[in-house]
Amino acid sequence: MRSHEVDYEIFGDDIQVVEVELDPGETVIAEAGAMNYMEDGIEFEAKLGDGSEPEQGFFGKVFSAGKRALTGESLFMTHFTNHGQGKKRVAFAAPYPGKIVALDLPKIGGTLVCQKDAFLCAALGTTVSIEFQKRLGVGFFGGEGFILQRLSGDGKAFIHAGGTIIKKRLNGETLRVDTGCLVAFTEGINYDIERAGNLKSMVFGGEGLFLANLSGTGTVLLQSLPFSRLADRIFQSAPSAGGSSKGEGSVLGGLGNLFGD
Questions:
Q1: What percent of the chain has pLDDT over 70?
Q2: Fold annotation for 7-234
């Protein structure tokens, strides 16, 4: 199935929104809960699967949706279709601060492998499936388990990540990154893991026990602030979690709590 040809515009800087413009009859698919707003004339429906194979039977759709559930995502995807007159817009945003990247899949080889929560939305016709990591080491220590998401098709897709997104082009080179900082990579990139230095570095270095080893020829997308890192820092700073209750930048911040706000 050929993907629908959608136009788009991205707004914002650190907490971005993407507006997708649909001609009458065009559809965009998205993860459940990603929609921000939509214009009159656009209708949405939750469906099993991504709709890339309309001839697929019920059990085929259930099997496809079940594979998506292995990544921790919903069985259903939401399909937004313009049933009105003229062009209409629908907007989507990520659930945490970061950047949205627009991908023209044919220009990157038609396929992108990404972390399981990176996918935001895509033109109807894009296949959203799973990518199994066959190596036990990658599965246990790679940060995303055995399963990543695979986006393929001939249209536009949108992914999101935390902080700033950095694009690296590898030409037979090797890049080692924190496993949580990896967002996506194109075909031609081999993904493996390795120890983060010697035993002392692994335990006291603060960089985790393992690093992702990316090699080959293709494009790699990295994020500067993985959501897990942000969540850990917030949890550590919360007084109820045993974190410091000291005010930022003040040695007297803790004393302030004795006298209220």
A1: 70
A2: Double-stranded beta-helix (3.60.160)
Torsion of CA 207, 196, 209, 180, to 10 degrees: 60
Please classify residue 222 by burial: count the beta carbons closer than 10 Å to its beta carbon, then call 0-12 exposed, 13-18 middle and 19+ buried: buried
Alpha-carbon distance of 160 to 157, in angstroms, equals: 10
Identify which of 151, 122, 136, 139 has the alpha carbon closest to the alpha carbon of residue 179: 139
Which tokens hold the place of 229?
């890192």
The yes-or-no verdict on residue 231 having pLDDT over 50 is yes
Q: How confident is the model at residue 185 (pLDDT cuts 50, 70, 90)?
A: very high
The residues, ordered by sequence, that sit 6+ positions from 172 with a Cβ below 8 Å of its Cβ are 215, 216, 217
CB 79 within 8 A of CB 29: yes
Of 26-30, 35-39, 96-100, the poorest mean pLDDT is in 96-100
DSSP secondary structure of 168-230: EEEEEEEEEEEGGGEEEEETTEEEEEEE-SSHHHHHHSSS-SEEEEEEEEEEEEEESS-HHHH
Rounded to whole angstroms, how far apart are CA atoms 140 and 98? 27
Reduced to 3 states, what is the DSSP secondary structure of residue 142?
coil
Q: Is 254 in contact with 246 (CB distance < 8 Å)?
A: yes
